[in-house]
Design brief:
CATH topology of chain A: NADH Oxidase
Distance between the termini of chain A: 36 Å
Strand order of the largest sheet of chain B: 2-1-3-4-5
CATH superfamily of the largest domain in chain B: Cobalamin-binding domain
Number of domains of chain B: 2
Order of helices and strands of chain B: HHHHEHEHEHEHEH
Strand order of the largest sheet of chain A: 1-2-6-10-7
Oligomer: heterodimer
Order of helices and strands of chain A: EHHEEEEHEHHEHEEEH
Low-confidence stretches of chain A: 222-231
Bound molecules: cobalamin
CATH class of chain A: Alpha Beta
Mean pLDDT of chain A: 90
CATH topology of the largest domain in chain B: Rossmann fold
Helix content of chain B: 40-55%
Shape of chain B: globular
CATH architecture of the largest domain in chain B: 3-Layer(aba) Sandwich
Number of domains of chain A: 1
Largest sheet of chain B: 5 strands, parallel
Number of strands of chain A: 10
Chain lengths: 231, 222
């Protein structure tokens, strides 16, 4: 098990990037909200506890027909897209990462205080932290793979690229209880909400695809259609 | 008088809450929805006119702009905040029964799900459409929806979910609500929900954004 606690500054989240997630470029409107975004980002940075954990499984059993991979007896039902990318991996890293519960609390408090805008900005900040934590975790797995003279794949999450979100149960079965303080409920929802889980393939014959979305036809996803993300 | 209603509407559309609010910059220092509503009531304008001729049309403009992606969530929220600052003066009239709203809308995030930002946006926009909101919160079990429907005859129901797995609980809730109260109208939404899913589970309406729901509800307004 490899556990990390990331420093907020390493997440590389600044006010303009939050502005962009809210839908604004560098124009006039962004300027109107930029002071507020900066202030809330400051508050979030002071309280958040960003954690990540991964575990590598060396004996992956692949089933080309059923498009499944079995890790220490736990079966994952991947779909075509994910199987195609991971299928050549010799080892699999399973990960969980989280922005922690603190920023969610700030969001809830803002709503209770009658400030829905601050609530929404905290919500986006929380999502951005979780996303960045996943990126930093990915870098850690890359470093570990380099030491083994191996490559890594993109990261794939249950619920994305058509992979069923109910595989979250399998994924959590392989992580320690309460990994990074994240729990999975009976409906496969993680709390804290701002958490990301997934798999990364490791091997000599795998590669990182800089344009993974060309494989997928969904239009409403975080990666596939940045405009929709602005909601 | 007319001019006052137009000014309140403009404040709500542009998110001008009160005089002290620096937003939007081009209205800095001007009276906001808060002061103008108070003034309108003092001058004898009826709460019903303020609601029907200023707040509701203004929020409809905001909702349409959001649907067309001409504005984003922050501006929509500033508008909702401005509307709230006006509503606070109207609430005593709703409570006394002197002024009626369009009807009641019960909303909640379904059992097993905690995601509420989308649900809150929908609640704010429907309130802006003139409806009374009964927000049951998150992780709302079917029984709680059922009780709310029984306590509020004629109310409409909105269900929200984040994941395909939690969306399954939407199905259970719709089934029970429809079985016990066939006439109750149920609206569904959230990132994984689609029109096909809405039809499959026997819900009455799906919209990817809040304005769709506001428009749908208009036909039932009392
Ligand atoms: C930001 C985001 C994240 C963030 C934050 C998540 C959070 N819950 O706060 C992070 C990065 C942490 C994340 C994680 C995950 N995510 Co995510 N995420 C998104 C994203 C891009 C936006 C969600 C959002 O906050 N939108 C903004 C709010 C305001 O919108 P909303 O809630 O949808 O509400 C709007 C409408 O839906 C509608 N509406 C909502 N309710 C209602 C109700 C009624 C009655 C009506 C009429 C309308 C309506 O109006 C609202 C305002 O416009 C969506 C994709 C997308 N573009 O929607 C995926 C998405 C929700 N995520 C998805 C998944 C799978 C996950 C993970 C399971 C991935 C993983 N394995 O780690 C986790 C789950 C986290 C958890 N807690 O369990 C899937 C869910 C679908 C599915 N397969 O189940 C989506 C749809 C992406 C996809 N695959 O296309 N995610």
């Amino acid at each position: 098990m490899n556990s990390f606690e990331f420093d907020f500054h390493d997440l590389e989240i600044d006010a303009p990037s939050i502005g962009r997630l809210l839908g604004y470029g560098e124009g006039n409107l962004y300027n109107v909200f930029s002071d507020l975004i900066r202030e809330l980002l400051g508050n979030a940075s002071r309280v958040c506890s960003v954690k990540a954990e991964y575990r590598i499984f060396h004996a992956a059993e692949w089933n080309d027909k059923a498009k499944t991979v079995t890790l220490t007896g736990v079966v994952f039902r991947l779909n075509d897209i994910v199987y195609k990318q991971l299928g050549k991996a010799e080892s699999i890293a399973i990960f969980v990462c989280t922005a922690g519960p603190e920023v969610e609390k700030l969001a809830r408090q803002a709503m209770e205080d009658g400030d829905p805008l601050a609530c929404c900005i905290y919500d986006i900040i929380g999502s951005a932290i979780a996303e960045s934590a996943a990126r930093l975790l990915h870098d850690e797995v890359r470093k570990a793979a380099v030491l083994m003279a191996k490559n890594i794949t993109n990261r794939y999450s249950p619920g994305y690229c058509g992979w069923d979100v109910s595989d979250q149960y399998a994924l959590f079965a392989l992580m320690p209880d309460n990994s990074c303080g994240v729990r999975l409920n009976d409906s496969a929802l993680m709390s804290p909400e701002k958490s990301v889980s997934g798999m990364i393939g490791i091997g000599r014959d795998v590669s990182f695809d800089p344009y993974p979305c060309s494989l997928c036809h969904r239009t409403e996803c975080l990666f596939g259609n940045p405009r929709r993300r602005q909601l | 008088m007319e001019e006052l209603l137009t000014r309140i509407a403009r404040c709500v559309e542009s998110g001008k809450t009160d005089k002290a609010s620096p937003y939007p910059p081009d209205m800095r220092g001007n009276d906001g929805a808060d002061e103008l509503t108070k003034q309108a009531l003092d001058e004898g304008l009826s709460p019903a006119r303020i609601l029907d001729e200023a707040l509701i049309p203004a929020m409809a403009v905001v909702g349409e702009r959001f649907s067309r992606k001409e504005i984003y969530v922050p501006q929509m929220l500033m508008a909702a905040k401005a509307m709230n600052s006006s509503m606070k003066h109207l609430k005593p009239f709703f409570q006394s029964g002197e002024t009626k709203r369009k009807g009641k809308f019960i909303i909640g995030t379904v059992a097993g799900d905690l995601h509420d930002i989308g649900k809150n946006l929908v609640a704010m926009m429907i309130e802006g459409g003139g409806w009374e909101i009964i927000d049951l919160g998150v992780d709302v079990k079917t029984d709680k929806f059922l009780k709310a429907v029984e306590d509020n005859p004629g109310a409409f129901v909105g269900l929200s979910a984040l994941l395909t797995t939690t969306m399954e609980n939407m199905k259970k809730t719709v089934e029970v609500l429809k079985e016990k109260h066939p006439s109750v109208k149920v609206l569904v939404g959230g990132a994984p929900v689609t029109m096909e899913y809405c039809e499959k589970i026997g819900a009455d309406f799906y919209s990817p954004d809040p304005q769709g729901a506001v428009n749908y509800l208009k036909q039932f307004a009392v």
